[in-house]
Design brief:
It is a single chain. By secondary structure, this protein is mainly β. It has a domain at 31-68. It is built from no helices and 4 strands. It has strands spanning 2-7, 12-17, 48-53, 56-61. A two-stranded antiparallel ribbon has the order 1-2. Strands 3-4 form a two-stranded antiparallel ribbon. A hairpin with a 4-residue loop joins strand 1 and strand 2 (12-17). The protein is elongated.
Length: 68
């Protein structure tokens, strides 16, 4: 949490950082980056690029990715 304080005369702005001591649990989910068409991935020597489509964000290898 951060707090901004302003004094009128002289005009100065102070920023005060407050760090919480409670631990926050963050749940994450990760999947392998694989081509949507051929399932090739980084471990197979292919680069993988994300592309937004009408079906959502899909991953494509350098063979199946087109800019059209």
């Amino acid at each position: 949490m951060s707090q901004l304080l302003e004094t009128k005369i002289p005009s100065r702005i102070y920023q005060d950082f407050v760090f919480l001591k409670t631990k926050i649990v963050v749940n994450t989910l990760a999947n392998e980056a694989r081509c949507y068409v051929c399932s090739k991935g980084l471990e197979d020597g292919f680069s993988v690029t994300a592309k937004n489509t009408i079906f959502g964000t899909l991953l494509f290898c350098d063979k199946h990715y087109s800019t059209n």
